[in-house]
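Structure ticket #2291
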Amino acid sequence: MKNNLPNRLRRRQYIALALFGVTIAATQFAFSLYKQKQKPEISDVEFKTNSATPDLPIILTEFNPNDLDQSQWKNLGFTDRDVATILKYKRIIGGEFRSKEQFRKCYPIVDRYKELEPYILLPETDYDAKKGNFTYKTFEKKKLNIPGKFNPDNFSTNDWVAMGFSERQAEAILKYKNYLGGSFQSKEKLKACFMISEEQFAQMSPYVLLPEKTDEQPRVYAGSFKEKPKINYTYFDPNQLDEEGWKSLGFSEKQIAGILNYKIKILRGSFRTLEDVQKCYMITQRFEELKPWIRFNPENIKEPEKTSYAKPDAKQEHKTDFSKVDLNEMTFNQLREFGFNEKTSGGFVAFRKSLGGFVNKNQIYEVYGIDRDLAEKLVGMSPLNSEGVKKYTLTDAPESWLKTHPYFKYSADKIIFYRISNPDEKKIWKFIKTKPEYEAKMRMYLK
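Resolution: structure written out below.
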């Protein structure tokens, strides 16, 4: 018994030491978990940004970043992810930006800080904020000076400035109005102008002489809208109407010219059926309104003039040496001589004029209804000199040129509106988002 006792004691000691070591290890592990839970969780802030072109042009004006909501940050050109990051950063630092120094440290702001800096209503540094080395008056929101009931369509830059907007803001508001077609149309559209904050709109809304929504029938205010004259319809024969007759039906001079041109050149002198009248582009939208009053008199219907589109004989073909006639100088008569019919020759000249001249021979194939075989023959024979064709940049192209040029007119309003605050061609191309084939055509007329 005496010999076994020391061995038993040693065994018990080993077991006790092992249990003690396990207890210490478990305690340390539990304590480390406790400490991790006590650390502030800031890992969920995602400092990521994706550059994206905004849907609306960005025109900067003074702002306090502490006053902006999610939609207003987006109006400054930030993506949804950028905005989420900015707002999380703002919460982490205590709920507000104290200075420009602190604001610029927010990751999505870094790349655009130089652009935004002149417009930020914050003290320069945290030290200035603590010491009060700036005036809070510049940060106060101005109350608008509203003169009474008014129609914003009639306001000039000076009128908007007198109301309380800066000159830059006033110019942007007028550009926005022009972008809409020269009229705000409704309070709904006016509110959408990002130069007018929700607070400012709430102040002016009771005094604005516009319908609430765009789809509402506009009310007539004194000096605001021109009331259209009522038309007293009577039965009429479209073949007997002259310019005054069509004018009495409510058509403009430009529309009347188109109607008469359609009757003479397309219909060869007379409307013969209701379908002929309906197909006239200037009448199509009002056809159902006019249809009950149309009465054809058979005596006024002329037989269509027979026009021969036969190609000229050999002698006529060699009368002009087309290998020496520039495609940008070719006349209507020369095109007829070459073999094109009257309609195609007129279309050729009109399309060339609207372009300001051809730059590439392949543009000739775009002439509506052109005979492909005959066009290929002309392209292969005649030279093209495009040195006299006017070219511009997207930033300096005249508005009238953009709105009438066949390749630019569908993007003209976007280009004009966006280049006000972003005179950068690369940004303009991203904003208008044209298809590659259209962009290639447009670039032929750009420097």
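Closing remark: The first helix runs from residue 5 to 38.
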